[in-house]
Each structure stands twice: as C-alpha cells, then as structure tokens.
Amino acid sequence: MKQESNSAMVESQNFENQNFENQNIDDIKAVMDQIGAQARAASKSLALAPTDQKNRALTEAAALLRTRMSELLTANAQDIEFGAKKGLSPAMIDRLLLDEGRIEAIAVGLEAIAALPDPVGDELARWNRPNGLDISRVRVPLGVIGVIYESRPNVTADAGALCLKAGNAVILRGGSESFHSSAAIHACLVGGLKAAGLPEHAVQLVPTRDRAAVGHMLTMTGVIDIIVPRGGRSLVERVQNESRVPVFAHLEGICHVYIHADADPDKALAIAVNAKMRRTGICGAAETLLIDKAAAPMLPNILDALIAEGCEIRGDNDVQQMNAAVLSVSEDDWYAEYLDAIISVKIVENLDAALAHIETYSSNHTDSIVTENTAAAEKFLSQVDSAIVMHNASTQFADGGEFGMGAEIGIATGRIHARGPVGLEQLTSFKYQVRGSGQTRP
Q1: Backbone phi, psi, residue 279, to 5°
Q2: pTM of the shown model
Q3: How many CB atoms lie within 10 A of CB 305?
C-alpha cells in the first residue's frame, strides 16, 4: 500500500495535494528512486524524439503559461507570503516575484528555445582514415540532468525547456521559497509534453521541501548524469562537496566593472548604474566598481547617480572623500556577492592594478572594462580569467538569453565541458560513429 501511494504521488506531480514534510527519509528515498527510474526511462525516448515533437511540447507549454496566468499568480502569492514570513530581503523577494510581464517573458523564452536549432544529431566533424574507416563525431544528449536551484521560479521553465530541447530528461529540485510557483510552472511543462505525445516524466519536479531529497539526488549515480546547482554559495558548496555525480557549478557572481583612464564618461556612467541597479538580485549584477586614478574626476557623477537610484556605496578613503554618503569598505566587502542595492568602490592606480584586484577577488563569473582604448580593452579581455569578459557593456548581459541561447540553466565558471552560459549545446556530449566495410586491425 505504501509503495502504491508513493507511485501515485510521483505520477500526479500535484504539489498542492502532496505533503512530504512530515514523512521520514525512507519515504523520500523511495519517491526519489522512482523519479530517477522514470527519468532514465523517459530519457531513452526523448533522445530519439524528432525536433518538431520537442518544439511542440515547448510551444504548448508556453500557451498554457498564458492561459493559466491567474493560477500562476495565485501560486506565486503563496510563495511571496511564505518568503516574507521567513524574512527574505527585498532583493530575494524580487527574485521570487512573478507578475504578468515576467510570466509572459517565461512563455516567450520557451518559444525562443523552440525556435533554436536542435543540437542533437549535429555532425561536428567527419573524416576518413587510410584504411577506409569513415569516422564522424556527432552530438548526443547527456541523458538525465539534475538541477538544484533556489528562489527563482523561472528556472523551472528555463531548465526544463533547455533539457527537453537538448534531448535530456531532467529532475528539478526548486527552492522552498518558490515551491508553489515552480509547481504551477512545472504543470504547464507536463501539459506541453502530454500534448506533444512525449513522456510526461521527461521533466519532473521533486515534490518536497525536505533537504534530504537534495542529499539523495547527489548520490544517484547511474541515474543522474550531471548535477547543475544554481544558487548561493552554501548550496553550491554543499553540492560540490557531497555530490558523487559530476557537477556544473559556479559559487557566486562577484562581478566587476572597471572604468579605465580612457573611458567615455557617458558610457561609464550608464554602464556602472545599469550593471548594478537594473536588477540587483541576479548573478550578473556588478558588486564592485573599480575606477582608474586618472578617471577619478568621473566618479562623483557616478556616485550621485547610484545613490539617486537607492544604492548604498562602500568605498575606500579616496572614495569617501568624494561623497559624504559613502560608507567605509572592509576587506570582506571585496568578496561579497550582495545581490542587493550595495556596491563596493575602489580607485586603482592603473589597468595592472585593476587586473590584480580582479584576480584576487573575482569569482570568475563576469567582469567588464569601460574604455575607448582598444589596446587596454584587448589586454583586459585576454588576461581576466572569467567565464565572461566584456568591453563597454553592462555585466547584466551575462545571460544565456542575451547571448542568443534562448535561455540558460546557469553560468558555469569551471573549465571542464561547459563554461559561461549553459545552453543547449552545453547540455549535450558527443559520440563517435565509425563506419567500415569489414576492416580488421592487424
């Protein structure tokens, strides 16, 4: 009886009627094992699914997001109330919030992914050997992907859609704060899968807030092929330390904007304010502003503009002397991912000093230089060892959608397999197909 109950709960994926919060670890393990088995089975069908069928699933899901707008907003209101009771910061509440515009953007994102070329089956290279063997390297899905994320409900759609289009089954474990919103979005994805005749278990959402489910995911070798954590330092460090499954990860987005001596003042002002204040709660938001000593006359206007936007400034002594509202910066601030309307500011001697600061404190996510000096820009682009390095552009462009990838699962800052925005191509591997005519090796 117990086994049938767990099966029914997993099959329905109806979070409103499921309450795992008081169940013991054995129950969670049983459910996670079943989710894993269903994902593995679905991945075999999805790997062979034609592009048109995958695209239909995505466009049908987008349509459902629009027709179920009121349900999504109601679910999100429950999460906002839950987050407020937990004492989430305004920046974190903003990450959690859905409104009609954001839901429409999620739907458009699904349609954009549907419109992208399907990477599965792409022939990356082909050559013939002297012995007559015909060898090709072809893109294939990774298999089953586990995505563990925190408060942003749009990740449910982005991750589910990208994995689906790349031919992968996916197990999604959202944050406790976005529990109801993620469930409502997931229901739309499942509706799209059903409408397209694809396995509904190709995209599954873990139906519990219990962190034991995360621990179990990290040990699901032979079922999950890649784990992608998307969240704060504590989540990512836990995944990296405990996972027995390979991980795509970044710890945090400590992003820098450096205003060089030859920066255009108007560009410097616009980029500095946008990089920090457009959306403070995303990983591409600038957390540190460096400005060349020779460009320091530009800084008062930039400080005034940031303060007018509601930004708290923490600066060194030279910066404090420029504006009475500037607070003292500490060593810890240079390592801080604020995800809030706070920025650390430092005047540096020159480009080399800026490079040294970034090398010391950067999380290798995204860093930008503002300059009209091509040589300085090229030096910055070549020597800053981050996943994304920019010239005369806001760090807020560190986003798979802005890169033309439709969306992203996250920004990977490692150096193996995927780096930068993790989109469709990064969610595939490859295999070699060797065609012969009876050759044997001497």
Answers
A1: -145, 115
A2: 0.79
A3: 16
Q: Which segments of 170-264 does DSSP mark as H helices, in order?
A: 179-196, 212-217, 233-242
Question: What SS3 string covers 116-128?
Answer: CCCCCCCEEEEEE
Tens digit of each residue's pLDDT (9 = 90 or more) over 217-254: 999 999 999 999 887 778 888 888 999 999 887 667 89
CATH superfamily of domain region 2-249+419-431: Aldehyde Dehydrogenase; Chain A, domain 1 (3.40.605.10)
Phi, psi of 419 (to 5 degrees): -145, 140
**8 Å CB contact between 333 and 315:** no
Summarised one tens digit per residue, pLDDT across range 246-268 is 988 766 789 999 999 999 999 99
Q: Radius of gyration of the chain from Cα atoms?
A: 24
Domain spans in the chain, listed from the N-terminal domain onward: 2-249+419-431, 255-403
Do 181 and 155 contact (CB within 8 A), yes or no? no
The answer to whether 2-249+419-431 and 255-403 have equal CATH topology is: no
Q: Is 339 left (phi over 0), alpha (psi -120 to 50) or beta?
A: left
Do residues 237 and 251 lie in contact, with contact meaning Cβ atoms separated by under 8 Å?
yes
* Pairwise CA distance, residues 41 & 295, whole Å: 59
Please identify which residue in the block is written with the tokens 């699914």: 49
**From 3.30.200.20, 3.30.360.10, 3.40.140.20, 3.40.309.10, which CATH number describes the 255-403 domain?**
3.40.309.10
